[in-house]
Amino acid sequence: MSMLYLDNAATTPVRPEVLEAMMPYLTRWYGNPSSHHTVGEAAADALGEARARVARVLGLRAGDIVFTSGGTEANNLAIKGIAIAAALRRADGAPRRADAAHAHGGTHIVTTPIEHESVLESVAYLERVHGFAATRVPVDADARVSAEAVARSLRDDTVLVSIGYANNEVGTVQDAAAIAAALRERRVPLHLDAVQAAGWLPLSAAELGYDAISLAGHKLGAPKGTGVLGIRGRVPLEPLLHGGGQERGRRSGTEDVAGAIGFATALELAEAERVEASARVGTIRDRFIARVLEHVPSARLTGDPVHRLAGTASFTFAGTSGEAVLLELERRGVVSSSGSACAAGSDEPSHVLLAMGIAPGVAQTAVRFTFPRWLNAPLDAVADAVEASVAAVSAPRR
Ligand SMILES: Cc1ncc(COP(=O)(O)O)c(C=O)c1O
């Protein structure tokens, strides 16, 4: 078997269409969008076009789109930016815009224990440095969080709820629309980390009811270093990067024009293909999961069997070591991962699996397969490689 890359939740290759769309803005229209001459104006036009195209996919206004360096920055900006703006309003004594929705002050944040580190660490920073309190709403054994539990966690001083739309380690999808509906009456803004959801799930702001959404280009066939925070204009946001006031003062620094074009192109392609790709890949995923569960006695599926990303199959193989299984798989031509690429190299069991109630010793046997959107053939040979790899590293039966 030649090499098969099944770690697409970690990152994806740049799509040829994306690279082609970017090239003119790297070499020919290379201006600084803030420059007041024709070279700069051409770049500003391109940036504006990219912004409008991203906004169209999300169902937001062009002015709601902030280009960032990726998912980590988008999450940091959403969480710290919204929270610090709200804390400042409280320090002022009165809401700055009493008429505006989502403008009450306070220092309480709600999230879950299964979020990506860029969310968890941003929240921890607010607790440590800015005196915030945080509630981490527990998830069930399938990594689902209930909208009712989120609603129950709200306080009068809650200024933000940040939830991962789809989990990067186990692929569980949350009912974002139900969570948004539960928050609406309380006028608490919802931030969705949609980094893993993009390309698989609907992103429409009208459908989902979020106030802010994080996306990363490199999970979608755009280059690393590109990302977006979509944030409704009514939500006050304190910037993290101060300087020339680009991105309407929300993110200073000369914009990555080619990156913005690449991001817009990748997002449009992924959205156009989304419904068909999810159905096609979901069918392949289900057959793969069934085959692994049938052929590997120690295999347990992690995450929700139904509410899960079409491109994610994740397991534990009790009695093995996840790292050893990965090495065996790679020898057989299958590249996969133990979960989050960010946690790779660490021996700590995954915080996601622990929060789902999986024992630390079992959590250390996790292996995650994340599929490309173009996948179009059954993965029986990969399931066979899993069977052989697990057998190779399992303690011999007595
Ligand atoms: C759910 C989720 N959020 C955020 C990120 C961070 O995105 P980036 O790698 O673009 O910083 C990732 C990356 O793995 C992720 O899976």
Sum up the structure in keywords:
single chain, 398 residues, alpha/beta, Aspartate Aminotransferase, domain 1, Aspartate Aminotransferase, domain 2, 2 domains, seven-stranded mixed β-sheet, three-stranded antiparallel β-sheet, 12 helices, 13% strand, globular, binds pyridoxal-5'-phosphate, pyridoxal phosphate
Short description:
By secondary structure, this protein is of the alpha/beta class.
What would you say this structure looks like, in words?
With 398 residues, the chain is an alpha/beta fold. It has 2 domains: 4-11 and 274-393, Alpha-Beta Complex (Aspartate Aminotransferase, domain 1); 17-270, Type I PLP-dependent aspartate aminotransferase-like (Major domain) (Aspartate Aminotransferase, domain 2, 3-Layer(aba) Sandwich), CATH 3.40.640.10. It is 40% helix and 13% strand. It has 12 helices and 12 strands. It has helices at 16-27, 38-58, 71-92, 117-130, 147-152, 176-184, 205-208, 257-295, 322-331, 351-355, 360-363, 380-393, and strands at 4-5, 65-68, 108-111, 133-136, 158-164, 190-193, 212-216, 227-231, 299-301, 312-317, 334-335, 366-370. A 7-stranded mixed sheet has the order 2-8-7-6-5-3-4, with helices on both faces. A 3-stranded antiparallel sheet has the order 9-10-12. Strands 1-11 form a two-stranded parallel sheet. Helix 4 links the parallel strand 3 and strand 4. It is globular and about 70 Å long. Mean pLDDT is 94; it is low at 96-101. Residues 70-72, 75, 116, 118, 164, 168, 193, 195-196, 216, 218, 227 line the site of pyridoxal-5'-phosphate. Its EC number is 2.8.1.7. It catalyses: (sulfur carrier)-H + L-cysteine = (sulfur carrier)-SH + L-alanine. InterPro entries: Aminotrans_V_dom (IPR000192), Aminotrans_V_PyrdxlP_BS (IPR020578), Cysteine_dSase (IPR016454), PyrdxlP-dep_Trfase (IPR015424), PyrdxlP-dep_Trfase_major (IPR015421), PyrdxlP-dep_Trfase_small (IPR015422). It is an enzyme of class 2 (transferase).
